Amino acid sequence: MLDALTPSAAPFALHNLAAEGFLFATGIENSAPRIEGGRFRRDQMAECGHYDRWREDLALVKAIGCGVLRYGPQLHTTLRAPGVHDWSFADESFAEIRRLGILPVVDLCHFGVPDFIGDFQNPDFPQLFADYAGAFAARFPWVQLYTPVNEMFITAVFSAKYGWWNEQRHDDRSYITAIKNIVRANVLAMQAILRIRPDAIFIQSESTEHFHPECPLSLPHAEHRNAERFLTLDLNYGRRVCSSMYEYLMDNGMTREEYHFFLRQDLKRHCVMGNDWYVTNEHLIGADGHSRWAGEVFGYDTVTRDYHARYGLPVMHTETNMDEGPRGDESERWLWKQWSGLMRLRQDGVPVLGFTWYSLTDQIDWDSALRERNGRVNPRGLFDLDRNIRTVGKAYQRLIATWQPVLAQQGHCLRLPVTAQ
Q: Whose CB among 120, 202, 289, 300 lies 3.0–4.6 Å from 221's, allowing a Cys bridge?
């Protein structure tokens, strides 16, 4: 186990260290993609009642025992035009977060962009987003932990490969354009934040995926998808992609100079590899290359081990949830399954620094990935939408209360510099 981030991973964090303990977290769901040809925005903060009950929600984070909250102001309501910001909601909510002593991991872009940007095909998005990230860091200099762009892989796949959100495209060229714009935006945002807060730490919240071949004819398709799943993190961390992915990038519009831009970056040492895990993260690939959900085959710990071996970074489990099911206990069973996988990773020497149940409250229409406006409540939160605690909320509360003291004593945790203003 590691008592701190290793010097090779994060030399910036080795001075004036203060233990924060294991990071037990939840999040406020703030997905905001556009659907129906861009005519309608799914704002989950609005749909789940957070704008009206944000003080109550933040109090519930403390009540359940979480010291960490994945949270961010909505990009589409805060960035009104290039260089024009409406900080009114962020000023209030972040003041309360600070007063309560909650450690925020600030989520700056969650699946959608402002109307004036359009979608992830816009080449102006990376610089506009970086300017916004720098403006946020300057306004809230006490914030240290960031997820600039949430789930870069899923953002690109759902918007420009599956055709579900935003630009709703299905072709490889649009998909690679989305990837290079999204990752470039993330990289430029990290640089902008570091100019304001040189000790900032970036916790990538990225979907952890695996693709299983259904038959021998599907092997090439599975091999391609299992290489493709790493593209966003490879580019973000400046890691050379494999030869087949290099050809895939070049064949679909990425230039050599654009590729070398990513290789020139030195930001990995500022990062924690956050990974998200759901029952839908493993896929079965058919002979025709089409995929469908496979359910849990390998599980969180096995697939996470692959990602950790590839990047060598400290890990944080940054998202998971499960519907409570007809018996009302499926989410609790899933919680303990995820926790057991996490503990196995730590036992095997993988430095897992935190765990997140996402999100604090139930969500709306995630059973259709927000594509359909059904208004269906998905019972996946620690609390329902009336803010009554669910069975999984009570279980998570017990888990935190029993494990936090033990993990803090072990000292195998993320340590942060004491430099906050």
A: 289
Q: Which CATH class is domain 11-359+388-417?
A: alpha beta
Rounded Cα–Cα distance for residues 161 and 291 (Å): 13
Helix axes 50-64, 88-100, angle to 10 degrees: 20
Distance (Å, whole) CA 106 – CA 270: 15
Contact call for residues 275 and 209 (beta carbons, < 8 A): no
Structure tokens belonging to residue 319: 């998202």
DSSP code for 154: H
Nearest Cα residue to 183 out of 234, 249, 136, 146: 234
Can you name the residues that pair with 34 across neighbouring β-strands? 41
Q: What is the CA radius of gyration of the chain?
A: 20
Cα distance between residue 254 and residue 128, in whole Å? 20
pLDDT tier, 4 (very low <50, low <70, confident <90, very high otherwise): very low
Mean pLDDT of the chain: 93
Question: What is d(CA 71, CA 102) in angstroms, rounded to the nearest whole number?
Answer: 11
pLDDT tens digit sequence for 34-54: 999 999 999 999 999 999 999
Whether residue 412 is predicted with pLDDT greater than 90 in this model: the reply is: no
Q: How many residues does the chain have?
A: 421
> Which of 275, 264, 205, 198 has the alpha carbon at shortest distance from 237?
264
Give the pLDDT confidence score for residue 21 in this predicted structure. Answer: 78
3-state DSSP assignment of residue 135: helix
Backbone φ and ψ for 414, nearest 5 degrees, come out as -70, 135
Provide the 3-class DSSP secondary structure of residue 359.
coil
- How much is the average pLDDT of 324-328? 89
Question: What pairing do the DSSP bridges indicate for beta strands 210-213 and 271-276?
Answer: unpaired
Please say if the pLDDT value at position 419 is more than 70: no
Domain ranges of the chain: 11-359+388-417
* DSSP character at residue 36: T
State mean pLDDT over 118-144: 98
Q: Is 102 helix (H, G, I), strand (E, B) or coil?
A: coil
Kindly list the distances between the CA atom of residue 416 and the CA atoms of 22, 66, 148, 192, in Å, as whole numbers in the listed order: 12, 17, 19, 20
Distance CA 353, CA 13 (A): 14
Residue recorded with tokens 């430029």: 188
pTM of the model: 0.93
Count CB atoms within 10 A of the CB of residue 77. Answer: 18
